[in-house]
Design brief:
The complex is a heterodimer of chains A (153) and B (176).
Chain A lengths: L1 H5 L28 H66 L30 H4 L5 H8 L1 H4 L1
Chain B lengths: L11 H4 L8 H6 L1 H7 L1 H14 L6 H21 L1 H14 L9 H14 L59
Classes of the chains: A mainly alpha (153), B mainly alpha (176).
């Protein structure tokens, strides 16, 4: 038994000189900016950007006002043109309805079998029809084009 | 559906008039001078439209507006056609929304031509955004008065004691 201890065998021993010391102390994260530096940086960036914004803000506002002015100058002419076409289309709608319901007994144009839709208004008051009623006698493409006009412009 | 035969619509012949057949760029290019030239007609039409709230009542004023616009563009065509076309072309091709800030040079040339030939000065850039006062001979439409019913529930008399609200403003709970 004693001889077995004399034979040199490979053993799992510590490295020569011993182990290095294990670091057990806390390592907090490295702070690039202190709290005051962060506040100062935020304030500085805000001030610089306010200055840069104000350089062009006035110009942009003036451009917007000019564009609105140009649009308003043309608006009455466009409104007059649209009014005329609108009234023509209302007449066409009424005629189309009369033609469509010609043989239906009891139907009067603009009423529900003789009963008026708006009872408290005077009989000759113009009530502008809703969107789908305005396009009732034309193909669906037309109202689609008007409803989604923003997609095409 | 709601247009009975009692509703008086104007005839087609009344509504057919020579229309302005111009594109957006052309209209925008001439907008400031057009607004100044046709100021009376435009103001009259807009006042009529807003007061009466009815397109049928303002057809004649509308015709005057269209006629004035056509007259203006015919004058421009006689006097300053090349400068105007150049300006309109610049507006059309410079940006996506006809921005006036990209075409200052051509605008200067056009303004000079208009001032010399037609004696029309370009109004300041915010002129048409301001409220305008317009005097007209057309009588103001009657305002519908509030209906008074003889058997209405009586309200508090005017000199009754009104105490302040007990829990302050109720607007704090506005969305609930």
């Amino acid at each position: 038994m004693a001889e077995a201890c004399q034979i040199a065998r490979k053993q799992d021993l510590p490295p020569p000189g011993g182990y290095k010391p294990i670091p057990f102390k806390r390592l907090p994260a490295k702070q690039y900016f202190s709290g005051y530096a962060m506040f100062a940086g935020y304030a500085g960036m805000t001030l610089v950007s306010i200055y840069l914004y104000n350089l062009t803000c006035k110009k942009i506002t003036k451009n917007e006002i000019e564009m609105r002015s140009a649009k308003m100058a043309i608006y009455p002419m466009l409104l007059a043109e649209r009014d005329r076409e609108y009234l023509k289309q209302l007449r066409r709608n009424r005629d189309a309805e009369a033609e469509l319901m010609r043989d239906v007994p009891g139907w009067e144009v603009g009423t529900y079998y003789g009963e008026r839709v708006y009872k408290l208004l005077p009989p000759d008051a113009l009530v502008e029809p809703i969107f789908h009623e305005y396009y009732a006698h034309s193909s669906p493409t037309e109202w689609f084009k008007r409803a989604y006009i923003k997609l095409q412009s | 559906m709601v247009l009975t035969n009692d509703v008086v619509l104007p005839e087609e012949s009344e509504l057919t008039v020579e229309e302005v057949n111009l594109s957006t760029a052309t209209l925008r290019a001439g907008s400031f001078h057009l607004g100044k030239y046709c100021e009376k007609a435009n103001n009259e039409f807009m006042l009529c439209r807003i007061e009466e709230q009815d397109p049928r009542k303002c057809i004649n004023e509308g015709k005057v507006v269209t006629a004035c616009t056509l007259d203006f563009f015919r004058k421009v065509k006689k006097a300053c056609v090349a400068e105007f076309n150049q300006y309109a072309n610049c507006l059309d091709k410079s940006s996506g929304d006809f921005g006036l800030q990209h075409c200052r040079k051509t605008q200067g040339v056009f303004d000079k031509c208009m001032l010399e030939n037609l004696n029309l000065e370009r109004p300041p850039f915010g002129y048409f955004c301001e409220a305008r006062v317009h005097d007209t001979k057309r009588p103001k439409p009657a305002v519908e008065e509030k209906a008074v019913y003889p058997d209405a529930t009586p309200t508090l008399p005017d000199d009754a004691e009104r105490k302040p609200a007990r829990f302050g403003s109720r607007l704090y709970w506005m969305t609930e």
